[in-house]
Amino acid sequence: GNVYDVLPTRILSPHNTDKAIQNYNEIADKIVAKGHFGAYGLDDDHEMFRETFKKFAEDVVMPHAEHVHRHDDIIPEDIIGGLKDMGCFGLCIPESYGGIQPNDKPDNLSMLVVTEELSRGGLGIAGSLITRPEIMSKALLKGGTQEQKDKWLPLLASGERMAGIMVTEPNYGSDVAGVSVTAKPANGGWVINGVKTWCTFAGYANLLLILCRTESDPSLKHKGLSILLAEKPSFTGHEFTYTQPEGGKIEGKAIGTIGYRGMHSFEVSFDNYFVPAENLLGGEEGRGKGFYFQMEGFAGGRIQTAARAHGVMQAALEAALRYAQERAVFQKPIYEYNLTKYKIARMAVILQASRQFANHVANLLDDHKGQMEATLIKFYASKVAEWVTREAMQIHGGMGYAEEYAVSRYFVDARVFSIFEGAEEVMALRVIAKSLMDQYAAG
């Protein structure tokens, strides 16, 4: 078997070929007859969330998705404004700080449901918009002082402050402990120097979470890292420059990408960029703890990546089903061929299995468990998203390779999942396998 083999082996046995064909056909025909792809298994509140954001994605997001992708344009303001009005940026922020999450318990499932529907509408222009505030808010909740929480969380929840996350560097990606961008004490604060890369939404963002090396002793490694929250004006282009009154400077240039367009990912350089002392996350107690605060946000970011993958897979599956019913080959729709039904049924089964596992992990995270499982579902969903979108493209035949059909966008968008929020090789070896071995050794 391989990562895609989620159907029982006995169904695939040569001795059960007829039964297998019957099963696949039955699944595909039920999808067509019922008009949906399986129960989501949500309670009434979460189902209401899903329907609300599904409608927003179809009415507001989808009409912009192809234009932004083909022209590498910025996210339209009606999408950002609409999500602000819906409280979307406060999904992971407790009600006491202006968000919509219950004060007594996290609600990661709401974040998954909303992320999937927005990603179904458009990954780069909607599905990833709440990832950055989610990472920043979790870092604040984990390590911020009470004053920092009171100041920044309501601004993030309302969308008045749009977040950018700056961790990766040209020479340090998955090896976060090797971060070399420095922050040195200055009069009344810190000055940052160095270069960060793959900073998604860094141009538009006006509040940046920056993982910096604040301690000069190289032997401290990850224990020498801290987080600073830096402000800057919002820019909408592919390049930006801002010089502070104090003389510090920040410059950014967008990196061209094959997909995941709209938010733009920037390489950003800092030249004595000043950050006031009160913006050191956790205050003096937070010095040297930035790595741990960052990891708190990454767990949520990883399960959210799984939800983004599910949204793109869902869009690709729906596109494949529509095209299969419209396109005729040898005098009948290609949907009528067993091979097409097999593809559609298999895509639907894989997507549903991945979605339900993600929902389970969300419940674990609500109970402050499931860190390894969050990485595991990110790894799996990212991998199968490439296969599902490829199959959807294959069903389209030659037209799947044309930009005229959105399925080509789904395919190139899906390719990013196995790279960002943790490369799959590092996730497999340094997080999942290590955690499993530790569990085995312990018991």
What would you say this structure looks like, in words?
- The chain has 13 helices and ten strands.
- The chain is α+β, with helices and mostly antiparallel strands.
Shape descriptor reads: globular
Summarize the biggest pleated sheet: 5 strands, antiparallel
Which secondary-structure class do the elements indicate? alpha+beta
What percent of the residues sit in helical stretches (DSSP H or I)?
Answer: 40-55%
Low-confidence stretches: 3-12
SSE string, helices as H and strands as E: HHHHHHHHEEEEEEEEHEEHHHH
First-last Cα distance: 28 Å
Strand content: 5-15%
Alpha carbon gyration radius: 23 Å
Number of strands: 10
Q: If helices are DSSP runs of H or I spanning 4 or more residues, what is the number of helices?
A: 13
Give keywords.
443 residues, alpha+beta, five-stranded antiparallel β-sheet, three-stranded mixed β-sheet, 10 strands, 50% helix, globular, disordered N terminus
Question: Could you give the topology of this structure?
Answer:
Layout: H1 9-12, H2 17-34, H3 44-71, H4 77-85, H5 108-121, H6 123-127, H7 131-143, H8 146-158, E1 163-166, E2 182-186, E3 189-200, E4 207-213, E5 225-231, E6 239-243, E7 249-255, E8 265-276, H9 290-326, E9 328-329, E10 332-333, H10 338-366, H11 371-395, H12 407-414, H13 424-442
Parallel strand pairs: 1-4
Antiparallel strand pairs: 2-3, 3-8, 4-5, 6-7, 7-8, 9-10
